[in-house]
Write a structure and sequence with these properties.
This protein has ten helices and 14 strands. By secondary structure, it is α/β, with parallel strands linked by helices. The chain folds into two domains: about 210 residues, Rossmann fold (3-Layer(aba) Sandwich); about 40 residues, no CATH class. A six-stranded parallel β-sheet has the order 3-2-1-4-13-14, with helices on both faces. A four-stranded antiparallel β-sheet has the order 6-5-11-12. The protein has a two-stranded antiparallel ribbon with strand order 7-10. Strand 11 and strand 12 form a beta hairpin.
Length: about 325
Amino acid sequence: MKDVSSLILVLCLASTIFFSTLALIPTAYETHISKRLAVIVLGADEFVNASEQCFDLMAMYHYQILYLSSNLTLTPRANMTADKTNFQWTLTHWLNNTSTPDSQVWIWIFSHGTGLHHQPPQPQFPDLPEWRLDGGRNETNSDEGAEIPGYLIGIDSATWFGVDEGICLPSEEVVWDDDFRQWLEDVNYRRLVIYLGTCKSPNSNDTSSCFGGGFIDDLSAPRRIIISCTNETYDGWVNKTTGIGFFEGPFMEALTPYTQAWYIARNLIDYDGNTSVLEAYTYAYEHDMARKAVRISYAGGYDPWEGVYHNYRLIDESP
């Protein structure tokens, strides 16, 4: 009888501990994501491998995807042409009407970019300007602040100017940072992640480069994460072999379960076994071979452009 009483006591104690612990577990509605939505924009054909890999990644996570493409023949899964009108409609109508306060939203951009280009002085190229407008424009609403005196960018003035950055689309259209910010104003979401893969391609003959980091100030807002493959005044680089950016390749691999990158990235910061956006960014930054190469090119480091710009495409230590 004593054994039975002890067993009942143990069972009652175990039940009390179990239900007390259960009360501490977050309920489903507290962590629930009602929708997973993704917008993918391919602004130039040479980045098609990156946008297609991105589509596979988002589909694997069961995102509802709207895919804008510069070439519908190259991307049969795309929904519409990547022009400025469709880009605006995607954000102000489709995303605005589809997303909810409990939605997780990704926006991926794969294209060329415009902005203010900084090229450190090169003794062997004395006529190469250190600063120049590389497709960017003098700001129109004073939101950029004073970034550079006019005489450094070919304007006969000591007045300081701000520079707007842009995303290049086919037919020479540009989505400016101010456009992008305005089109997102009414979108509801729980978390919005924007990836700006504005890179320079080995196949590009235009002057449009990168400068995606310049969008961070314009697009930042509560519950947003803004990621760029480069900073505000430098180029990003595309792997000539894979057609995928040297930064975005490792970044997407780190987000893809069971890849080598994923196993490494998921324990870079919090050791919880899940890869966060910050861990994926950290992994990509550390494995961006082009970023490392252009910093050590005088020392004969690996050159992603196969020596074409080996002698003068140097940048400083700004990330």
